[in-house]
């Protein structure tokens, strides 16, 4: 099912939770809603679910406007952060519940429950109560319950945030597998960028209720449309240097006041080089190893930048080094945070 | 270590002595209820009746219409408990799940009524029942007790502890609000509902002043009222009087021992409505 | 939460509330107001609900009625006899039960049993225990050489008998509440005090008592309210009479008598409102004093650097 949001807005008495959001999600696509907490991603999801009514704008499922359609008539399945399983019912009863509400015959409901339980691999747990299950198992039950009525849209509200780190990665793959197998259009809300980058076909980034960027994971990472997106994604975070940009050249300045724009370069897109052409000169301060990565911190005038380097690079703390961004992987943002699209020839200087 | 053992022994001694004092009246009651008349008034007191006069129970049962009293007590307790559960579930749902105009004001007023001693209500309620023509009818014994602010308060607290997502999930699953209440919230709230039911049953079974005032005829008496009537008649036949007292007391003790967890829970939660 | 109030929701809520609200309004809210009004009806036909005259005569007449003053005095003696003793005893039992001992649950159950039983029925049992000639109590007292007491027929002993019964009956409830309060005290306080070398008694005085002051306040208010409303015990203990020469006549018995026996509704209502007022004022005083005490212990704790 295709999903269209047109200038969708949600206001509570004095807060605008979602501000004129527009986008189109294709049939069968897996889309993550990503942003910091309070950015409006959950509110957007709740509007898709029908639990909140949009204040303004239109919401289409295929070509039908569904603004005022009640949740139970939208043909959607939803999985909640705390799973919201019915604690007094067995797993089987939980999964059959949506079908019971639809007055599907007991026999058929049971057959469909077993079928979906096999899909999510919980067929051996059907007689247990939710309290007897691990977090990951509860998660699978919640997915099964959401999918059993063959919905046209699957909504997932931070489904992995209650799981421990290792399980989270497993379940990530499982959700992806199940979604592929069923081929259902899926909206996945998360505040975890790594999760969004690994699982989605496309990512919709939001901040303070507003649309930021809607693109494939690689594109939001490599081609951020604004400073917020560039800063929000990436770990360690992107380096931002205050610069004065004119005539194709960016000149490093001392303070934010003197800057007319910012140069953003991710740590993996900076290289330590031997010559000073289009490079910045600084003093190596420290090298720390974070797992397999080695992060070099370099002080350039009064700014600090972080660089991912190879373990065998012979740099010691105290060395003077030149640092140069990789071509096409450095971004210029104006003072409002928008990407400067004017041609930049890579010219960079620190004096 | 030896001092610890000594003081622990002392604690046990005190507690067990106290426990015996608490139980003694019941033991004495049952013992007397099984005595032949010539063993009742003796000095020193006889603890173990010999022979055991089970026939006292039959005798008392036939001297006064205890069968009728028992039926009335059970019927009234059952009916008022069902009523309380129904009104409480509906009201607690509204107070916990619906955001409506005046909700907090109405709830505060209800809590306020809990502070007023029941004796104030006695006279106007009596007049109301007279006008309704309910005096000496089951309605008078049950209907006024079919709503309890305390129960609403208790269940509302429980309902508020159920995560909101559950109602969203139910909505997604195509479950109406009314069905959600009965299929999800009520089963989940079983412990709180048992507590409410038990407190209601005990309160109804033990209540005295109210049934005394709103009933006149023998056929409408509940167990405690019947016991007092029997007490006037039986006078000093203490073995028979203790039979009657045992019949009033024992059912509640048994009920309490089986389900004490729920009763103690409810009592500690907010105190019994006095 | 963030869900808005609407008139539609209000209507829906009213539907859910209707059964409970209807009953509570008819049998709780309306009577509170009506009772107040009745207390000013001096001539009133309750059956037709016609009021012939209003005034404050009811209040004047109870304040001029020596029987009312006697009932007030008896009630006060009863409250003073029951509440402090019951609180001390139940606190002691609760503290002992709160130790690491076996059969704790069983003992708690035993102490609580009287609370779930019918007041009338246990009063009948106690009437037998108080029997002057063959009663258990006098037999026990006889063992230690005390000659028989006419518990229920001597005006001097009727009230003590009533008090013993009331303490026995209500002890379990207070114990359970105190136990819940004790379990809320962080055991680290006791560990810390032990390390500081405090004796068990010092720990009780300096940790348990101040930390439990909220619970004690609650228990004492509930105990006081219940004591003020004593009726069933008297009715059953003295078989329908308020004790020898009215020596156990309390305010609620007075109300019952005026209302049900003498059909003087106005006077009974006036007396019930006076009772309500007394309870209300005493509760306020207790809350105020209790609140101050809490304030004091808190500032003391702050001064010594303790407290949470």
UniProtKB/TrEMBL annotation, chain A:
Keywords, sorted A to Z? ATP-binding, Nucleotide-binding, Transport
What GO MF annotations does this protein's record show?
ATP binding
**SUPFAM superfamilies on file:** MOP-like, P-loop containing nucleoside triphosphate hydrolases
Q: Does the keyword Heme apply?
A: no
- Classification via Pfam families: ABC_tran, TOBE_2
Under the heading PROSITE patterns, the entry gives:
ABC_TRANSPORTER_1, ABC_TRANSPORTER_2
> Which segments constitute the ABC transporter domain?
3-233
Q: Which PANTHER family match?
A: MALTODEXTRIN IMPORT ATP-BINDING PROTEIN MSMX, OSMOPROTECTIVE COMPOUNDS UPTAKE ATP-BINDING PROTEIN GGTA
What protein am I looking at? Answer: ABC transporter ATP-binding protein
Origin organism is Sporolactobacillus shoreicorticis
UniProtKB/TrEMBL annotation, chain B:
Quote the PROSITE patterns the UniProt record gives.
ABC_TM1
> Which compartment or compartments is the protein found in?
Cell membrane
Q: Which residues form a coiled coil?
A: none
InterPro entries on file: MetI-like, MetI-like_sf
Membrane-spanning residues = 12-31, 69-93, 105-123, 143-159, 180-202, 238-259
Ranges where the ABC transmembrane type-1 domain occurs: 70-259
Gene3D superfamilies reported in the protein's UniProt record: MetI-like
Q: What is its main location?
A: membrane
**Which is a Pfam family this sequence falls into?**
BPD_transp_1
Membrane topology field: Multi-pass membrane protein
What are the record keywords, sorted? Cell membrane, Membrane, Transmembrane, Transmembrane helix, Transport
PANTHER family on file? ABC TRANSPORTER PERMEASE PROTEIN MG189-RELATED (PTHR43744:SF12), ABC TRANSPORTER PERMEASE PROTEIN MG189-RELATED-RELATED (PTHR43744)
Q: Which family does it belong to?
A: Belongs to the binding-protein-dependent transport system permease family.
Protein name in UniProt: Carbohydrate ABC transporter permease
UniProtKB/TrEMBL annotation, chain C:
Q: Which residues form a coiled coil?
A: none
Matching entries from SUPFAM superfamilies are given as: MalF N-terminal region-like, MetI-like
Q: Where in the cell is it found?
A: Cell membrane
Residue span, ABC transmembrane type-1 domain: 72-286
UniProt entry tagged with the keyword Cell membrane: yes
Asked whether the UniProt record includes Nucleus among its keywords, one would answer no
Q: Which InterPro entries match?
A: ABC_transporter_permease (IPR051393), MetI-like (IPR000515), MetI-like_sf (IPR035906)
Q: What is this protein called?
A: Carbohydrate ABC transporter permease
**What is the topology of this protein in the membrane according to its UniProt annotation?**
Multi-pass membrane protein
Q: Mark the transmembrane ranges.
A: 12-33, 76-97, 109-129, 157-182, 203-228, 265-287
Keyword field:
Cell membrane, Membrane, Transmembrane, Transmembrane helix, Transport
**Family of this protein:** Belongs to the binding-protein-dependent transport system permease family.
């Amino acid at each position: 099912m295709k999903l269209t949001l047109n200038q969708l807005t949600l206001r509570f008495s004095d807060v605008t939770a979602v501000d004129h959001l527009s986008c189109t999600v294709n049939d069968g696509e897996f889309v993550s809603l990503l942003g910091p907490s309070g950015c409006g991603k959950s509110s957007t999801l709740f509007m898709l679910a029908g639990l909140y009514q949009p204040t303004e704008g239109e919401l289409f499922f295929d070509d039908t406007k569904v603004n005022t359609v009640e949740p139970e008539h939208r043909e959607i399945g939803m999985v909640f952060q705390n799973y919201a399983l019915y604690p007094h019912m067995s797993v089987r009863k939980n999964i059959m519940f949506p079908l019971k509400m639809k007055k599907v015959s007991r026999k058929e409901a049971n057959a469909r429950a077993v079928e979906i339980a096999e899909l999510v691999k919980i067929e051996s747990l059907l007689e247990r109560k939710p309290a007897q299950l691990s977090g990951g198992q509860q998660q699978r039950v919640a997915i099964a319950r959401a999918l059993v009525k063959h919905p046209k849209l699957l909504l997932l509200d931070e489904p992995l945030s209650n799981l421990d780190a290792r399980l989270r990665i497993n379940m990530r793959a499982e959700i992806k597998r199940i979604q592929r197998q069923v081929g259902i259009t899926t909206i996945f809300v998360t505040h975890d960028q790594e999760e969004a980058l690994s699982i989605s076909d496309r990512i919709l980034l939001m901040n303070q209720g507003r649309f930021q960027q809607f693109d494939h994971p690689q594109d939001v990472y490599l081609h951020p449309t604004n400073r917020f997106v560039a800063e929000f994604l990436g770990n360690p975070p992107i380096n931002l240097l205050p610069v004065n940009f004119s005539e194709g050249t960016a000149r490093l300045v001392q303070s934010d006041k003197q800057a007319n724009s910012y140069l953003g370069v991710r740590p993996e897109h900076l290289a330590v080089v031997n010559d000073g052409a289009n490079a910045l000169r600084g003093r190596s301060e420290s090298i720390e190893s974070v797992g397999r990565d080695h992060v070099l911190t370099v002080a350039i005038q009064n700014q600090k930048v972080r660089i991912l380097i190879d373990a065998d690079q012979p740099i010691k703390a105290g060395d003077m080094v030149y640092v140069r961004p990789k071509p096409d992987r450095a971004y210029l943002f104006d003072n409002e945070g928008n990407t400067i699209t004017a041609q930049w020839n890579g010219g960079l200087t620190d004096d | 270590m030896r001092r610890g053992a000594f003081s622990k022994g002392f604690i046990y001694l005190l507690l067990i002595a106290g426990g015996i004092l608490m139980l003694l009246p019941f033991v004495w009651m049952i013992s007397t209820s099984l005595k032949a008349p010539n063993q009742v008034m003796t000095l020193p007191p006889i603890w173990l009746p010999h022979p055991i006069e089970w026939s006292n129970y039959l005798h008392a049962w036939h001297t006064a219409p205890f069968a009728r009293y028992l039926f009335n007590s059970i019927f009234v307790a059952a009916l008022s408990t069902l009523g309380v559960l129904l009104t409480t579930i509906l009201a607690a749902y509204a107070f916990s799940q619906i955001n409506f105009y005046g909700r907090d004001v109405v709830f505060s007023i209800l809590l306020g009524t809990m502070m007023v001693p029941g004796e104030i209500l006695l006279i106007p309620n009596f007049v109301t029942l007279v006008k309704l023509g309910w005096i000496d009818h089951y309605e008078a014994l049950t209907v006024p007790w079919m709503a309890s602010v305390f129960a609403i308060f208790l269940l509302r607290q429980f309902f508020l502890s159920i995560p909101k997502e559950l109602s969203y999930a139910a909505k997604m699953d195509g479950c109406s609000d009314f069905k959600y209440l009965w299929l999800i919230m009520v089963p989940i709230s079983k412990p709180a509902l048992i507590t409410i039911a038990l407190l209601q049953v005990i309160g109804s079974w033990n209540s005295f002043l109210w049934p005394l005032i709103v009933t006149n005829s023998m056929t409408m008496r509940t167990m405690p009222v019947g016991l007092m009537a029997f007490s006037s008649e039986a006078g000093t036949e203490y073995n028979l009087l203790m039979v009657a007292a045992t019949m009033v007391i024992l059912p509640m003790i048994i009920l309490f021992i089986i389900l004490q967890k729920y009763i103690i829970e409810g009592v500690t939660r907010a105190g019994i409505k006095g | 939460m963030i869900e808005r109030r609407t008139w539609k929701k209000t209507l829906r809520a009213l539907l859910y509330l209707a059964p409970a609200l209807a009953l509570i309004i008819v049998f709780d809210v309306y009577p509170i107001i009506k009772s107040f009004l009745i207390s000013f009806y001096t001539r009133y036909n309750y059956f037709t609900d016609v009021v012939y005259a209003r005034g404050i005569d009811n209040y004047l007449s109870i304040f001029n009625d020596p029987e009312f003053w006697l009932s007030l005095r008896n009630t006060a003696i009863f409250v003073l006899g029951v509440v402090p003793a019951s609180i001390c005893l139940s606190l002691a039992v609760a503290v002992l039960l709160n130790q690491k001992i076996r059969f704790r649950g069983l003992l708690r159950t035993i102490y609580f049993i009287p609370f779930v039983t019918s007041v009338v029925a246990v009063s009948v049992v106690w009437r037998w225990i108080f029997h002057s000639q063959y009663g258990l109590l006098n037999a026990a007292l006889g063992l230690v050489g005390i000659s028989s007491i006419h518990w229920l027929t001597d005006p001097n002993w009727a009230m003590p008998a009533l008090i013993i019964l009331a303490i026995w009956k209500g002890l379990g409830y207070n114990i359970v509440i105190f136990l819940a309060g004790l379990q809320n005290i962080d055991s680290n306080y006791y560990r810390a005090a032990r390390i500081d070398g405090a004796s068990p008694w010092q720990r009780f005085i300096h940790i348990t008592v101040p930390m439990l002051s909220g619970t004690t306040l609650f228990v004492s208010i509930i105990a006081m309210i219940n004591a003020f409303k004593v009726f069933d015990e008297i009715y059953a203990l003295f078989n329908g009479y308020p004790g020898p020469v009215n020596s156990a006549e309390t305010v609620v018995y007075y109300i019952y008598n005026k209302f049900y026996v003498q059909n003087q509704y106005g006077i009974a209502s006036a007396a019930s409102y006076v009772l309500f007022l007394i309870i209300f004022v005493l509760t306020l005083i207790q809350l105020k004093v209790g609140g101050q005490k809490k304030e004091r212990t808190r500032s003391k704790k702050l001064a010594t650097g303790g407290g949470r």
